[in-house]
Amino acid sequence: MVTISEQSLKSDKKVAVAPSPRKRGRPRTQLKTGSVRLTGAEALVKVLKSAGVRDYFGIVGANLSGILKSIVADADLNYLGVRHEAAAVFMAASLFHASGKVAVCLGELGPGAFNLMAGMGTAYNNHLALLVVTSNMPTKMVAPPSGVVMGFDGEKLFEGATKWSFQVRDVRSIPQVAREALRRALLGSPGPVHLNIPADIMTGTAEFDVNELNIPLEYTFSPLGRQVDVEQIEKAASLLAQAKRPLLIAGGGVIQAEATEPFRSIMNMLGAPGITTQMGIGVVPTDSPLFIGHAGLVGGPAVVRAMKEADVVLAVGCRFSSWMWEDGKPIVKGWPYQELIHIDINPDKLGQLCPASVPIVGDAKVVLDKLAETLEKKLKSKQIDEAWLSSLLEEYGAHRAHIEELAAASNEKIHPATLAKLIGEVLPKDSLVVYDGGHTTFWSNELTPALEPRTRFNDPLMAQLGFGLPYAIGLKYLYPEKHVFNITGDGAFGFTLQELDTARRYGLNVINIIHNNASWGIIKSGQQRHGFELGTSLEGTDYAAIAKAFGCYGERVTQKEEIIPAIERALASNLPAVIDVEVFFDPHPSMIYFRASTPVT
Predict the structure, then answer these.
(1) pTM of the shown model
(2) Which of 275, 293, 236, 283 is nearest to 256 (CA)?
(3) Which of 117, 272, 369, 400 is the 20 to 30 A CA-CA neighbour of 466?
(4) pLDDT of the residue at 427
(5) Strand pairing report for 312-316 and 104-107
(6) CA distances (Å), 361 to each of 217, 347, 349, 350, 565, in order?
């Protein structure tokens, strides 16, 4: 194992971090008397603070001045200014992904709001809660449209990318509307919400009861489903206790519910293989003797075969996305081909794609705690088909050995497997890692150890190129004491490289490692299979020089022996860093499964 020098492990300055909504304690009741006159912007910030919201991301704008002034006036609140509004969404999404904290993205009217939309798919498709606040022209100019410059219909613009989009029409309604936005963001499957606030509502004033401004969010809804269907739990435990070829699948719902411990307990009780979705990475540790690959079908042939051959499947917080498909349908077929126990907080996800023998609605931790307790009583001994399990482990071992051979081979340029393997070996133990780029993420998934949840981050359901740098910045902002890496492709990095300036200005020293094949690699490969090539070249860009121009550390690497020393120097620089590594394109072995998941006809 390669280690990092002590000098490179020095922590950066710390940023105050509020606890997540799930962990907040209930404050003592403090009844106050009287009222206060506030602008709409002031009221919004106060209500959000009472709900535990402390962090704001965005670009300053004239119509946002009331919110910005309120943030400056309160030492408990934090603001981070980005260079493009989409980066604000990625940063806010990363906070919820890593900790369950809800943050606010600010967008000025017109272009600022439309720029935010470029990042909304990541939060919406991956069930990550955040609050978007956009400004607008005065109400009378918004509806009906008057042709005013920068005017837009904010409510409609965000409808397709949020759980709830609402235009505030009265200053007095702000406390209720703000709490309702947060409720909707967190109830059921989390997701982004949006408030559009016209200028006259931002600056208009009203009298507010001081108690109305200070209602903790946990007093307005219960985020956890405590009631469980005991009969369904009994059925599920009986099926698992008798299963010969059980398979456990952890989705992002396991992590959001903080249910890793009971999931692992059931897996170990059964001696069953466990896999994860892209959003569930880390629930099944990569050093577990029951690990056969993760992150869906790109985990390799053992993952694909286990989903086909399992007689009982326990899927938790998993919606069976196309990362788990073959020929346009889920590989897990469910009943009557398999017994499927499907647990999800959203009833509309149960049985949607795969018929479930035992559908169970509820919070993953509550349900799994009860299921583990019930299974322990029913399970007299492990019933698993040891020959089946051994064959899966052997198949995964052969797949991994092939990847290792690719990493060890001598080539004129660096193989992407070589880069990914060396990164995996050199990472400090507590590192947080973002996987960005299309095909690049396959190598990261394969060769980056993942021992705990909320340590490896991807954007699987929107696959937004360029989210990685701002996501990493958001993680470093949240956990300044940890090392944060963004492993990305050269094409992806180009979308948001201006945020290197943001990282430098705020002292958020993330390390960006670029798989630079000087092309849109996967697209170029596809075009070449069809006998042409157009628009895929990205040659001639020196990303290390760009980093230096932003005041960051930059280094270009062309030999594999230089990779680890370059990472050490980047960590020791105490600056945001870019390590630009010259690699060549080679399709990941699991590309055959990925292409087969949604074939183009």
Answers:
(1) 0.92
(2) 283
(3) 400
(4) 95
(5) unpaired
(6) 23, 6, 9, 8, 50
